[in-house]
Amino acid sequence: MHVVIAGGHGQIARRLTRLLRERGDTVTAIVRQPTHISDVEEDGATGLLCDLESASVGEVADAVQGGDAVVFAAGAGPGSGVPRKDAVDRAASVLLADAAEQAGVSRFVQISSMGTDLVRGGAVPAGIEDVFASYLQAKAAAEDDLRRRDGLAWTVLRPGRLINDPPTGRVTLDQHVPRGAVTRDDVAEVLMLLIDSPAAAGETLELTNGSTPVEDAIAALAHGRDA
Prior knowledge:
The chain is built from 7 helices and 11 strands. By secondary structure, it is an alpha/beta fold. The protein has a single domain, classed as NAD(P)-binding Rossmann-like Domain (Rossmann fold, 3-Layer(aba) Sandwich). Strand 1, helix 1 and strand 2 form a beta-alpha-beta unit.
């Protein structure tokens, strides 16, 4: 399988690249900084320079051409303001989805965030500061864009609070789960298996660490559809 990862230099993306390469897949990592090419190539990916904030749909379609799946793992990152939250966490996801459809790559997995449902409809609960609210709103809009598309077999994954602890191999994965933390390594493993799972298409899933082995959590998606 050939997987194209946008935001390929991110912490989860690099973990995902290494897992995919370990099982024999090929990976193209889209990055926006020339200095990041060597890092993703050390992980085993082919680095591809493309700035999703300025590229055209055609340029991004060329970048994903030939892929079996596309993963949106980009984000504006900490310290960025409201405009970049929208430009990256929403607009870049929309651009990548447009490009995937144009290139004929139907499998699309998006990393979103728990909490997006809190800001739908324009309301922002008390206690959520403005920049974080704009981040959640951008993620919610990117999710909604995918749901309107018939040409993509999309999956949205909403991890909980991300931590750098060692992987546990055990998670809670469902449409809605209690808020909690999840290791970036466990997120990467879940992403790898979601890419392969036809039962995950059209699903929005929340993820935290829990008690279920990762493979069992993914298998339960198929069982749920058969029930």
